[in-house]
């Protein structure tokens, strides 16, 4: 049977998604510096739910205060954040969308000037001015991811995504180039992946089997090895604790960086996995209705939309009404972005994207 964008989707935990469109988790710098939700962030996300994204994911939300990765980041490291998250999850779910929060820690990518101290890393990194975590701190980090998931559940979210991609702290643990630990969290892949699996298993135990649980991974950059990332993915699937994998490819249509793997696209490498009951999504330059169809036809269960979701809060509706829909050309005006629900800080952040804001 052909997969179409408007088809209902069922996750292993029993949760249903009304269509195949997920709003990708996007940095937007528009909440308060103490991690509390702002009206601008609430408006940006609930407007996407109104625009019929089947799953609306928050920006990366840090689980420890020292894990902050960017100004104005939405936090979930304290109970003081719960009230805002209750408002946000309710606002998203009011439109029939699934509300999911992405759990994050920037690790060595936390700017020292933002956190007021040296950032942390699996092991010392002179290049990044980061200090290695003690064993006790690694265990605390694991526990804080799990506590954040419990806060998310208390806040009314349908689920969480564990951010293991883009060079942030769980990537740093997975990377043999960054992680030089000599204890049970360093060395071979089993040890380097230990923290990720302890977090996943801990969240599942703490939050129950009806709570939506996903993991985001990226197969390239930051010392990632394609075969190792595929091995971690298959193990996550085989152990049966997660509902979905979110593979961030940067570009869903490109070949791998490594020449020995260029016999097929990066997307095709992941399509080779035996997903069993676990669903999967990909992100990376899926911008038009035609590209949505191409990705779904490749066997992906749902698409993660970033850029086109900024340009059109109702991108899912537009594609479901017109299979060949193409987003408006860039650059767009600040007034256009305000109309699409972006606050001033988000608009300023988008000026970093070359040719996006005119």
What is this entry, summarized?
With 358 residues, the chain is of the alpha/beta class. It is 35% helix and 14% strand. The strands form 3 sheets. An 8-stranded parallel barrel has the order 3-4-5-8-9-10-11-12, surrounded by 6 helices. Strands 1-2 form a two-stranded antiparallel sheet. It has a two-stranded parallel ribbon with strand order 6-7.
Report on this structure.
It is a single chain. With 358 residues, the chain is an alpha/beta fold. It has a single domain, classed as Alpha-Beta Barrel (TIM Barrel), CATH 3.20.20. It has helices spanning 39-50, 82-93, 112-115, 135-154, 169-174, 189-192, 194-207, 226-239, 266-271, 289-297, 307-311, 315-321, 334-339, 344-350, and strands spanning 9-10, 16-17, 21-23, 55-62, 98-104, 120-121, 131-132, 159-163, 212-217, 244-248, 279-283, 302-305. The chain has an eight-stranded parallel barrel, surrounded by six helices. It has a two-stranded antiparallel ribbon with strand order 1-2. A two-stranded parallel ribbon has the order 6-7. α1 packs parallel to α2 and α4 packs parallel to α7. It is globular and about 55 Å long. The termini are far apart.
């Amino acid at each position: 049977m052909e997969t179409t964008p408007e088809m209902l989707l069922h996750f292993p935990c029993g949760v249903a998604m009304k269509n195949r469109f997920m709003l990708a988790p996007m940095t937007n710098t528009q909440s308060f510096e103490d991690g509390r939700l702002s009206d601008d962030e609430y408006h940006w996300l609930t407007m996407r739910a109104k625009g019929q994204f089947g799953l609306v994911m928050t920006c990366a939300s840090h689980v420890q205060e020292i894990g902050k990765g960017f100004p104005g980041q939405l936090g979930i490291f304290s109970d003081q954040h719960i009230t805002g998250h209750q408002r946000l999850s309710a606002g998203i779910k009011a439109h029939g969308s699934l509300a999911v929060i992405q759990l994050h820690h920037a690790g060595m990518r936390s700017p020292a000037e933002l956190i007021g101290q040296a950032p942390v890393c699996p092991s010392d990194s002179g290049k990044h001015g980061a200090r290695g975590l003690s064993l006790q701190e690694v265990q605390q980090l694991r526990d804080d991811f799990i506590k954040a998931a419990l806060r998310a559940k208390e806040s009314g979210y349908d689920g969480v995504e564990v951010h293991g991609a883009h060079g942030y702290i769980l990537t740093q643990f997975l990377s043999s180039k960054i992680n030089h630990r000599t204890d049970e969290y360093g060395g071979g892949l089993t040890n380097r992946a230990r923290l990720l699996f302890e977090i996943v298993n801990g969240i599942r135990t703490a939050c129950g089997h009806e709570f939506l649980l996903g993991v985001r991974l990226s197969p390239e950059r930051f010392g990632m090895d394609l075969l190792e990332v595929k091995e971690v993915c298959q193990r996550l699937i085989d152990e049966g604790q997660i509902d979905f994998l979110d593979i961030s490819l940067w570009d869903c249509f490109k070949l791998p960086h490594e020449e020995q793997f260029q016999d097929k696209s990066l997307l095709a490498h992941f399509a080779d996995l035996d997903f069993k009951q676990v669903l999967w999504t990909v992100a990376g330059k899926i911008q038009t209705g035609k590209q949505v169809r191409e990705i779904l036809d490749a066997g992906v269960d749902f698409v993660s939309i970033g850029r086109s979701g900024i340009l059109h809060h109702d991108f899912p509706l537009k594609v479901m009404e017109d299979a060949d829909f193409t987003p408006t050309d860039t650059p767009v005006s600040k007034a256009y972005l305000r109309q699409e629900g972006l606050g001033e800080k988000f608009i300023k952040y988008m000026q970093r994207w070359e040719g996006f804001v005119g």
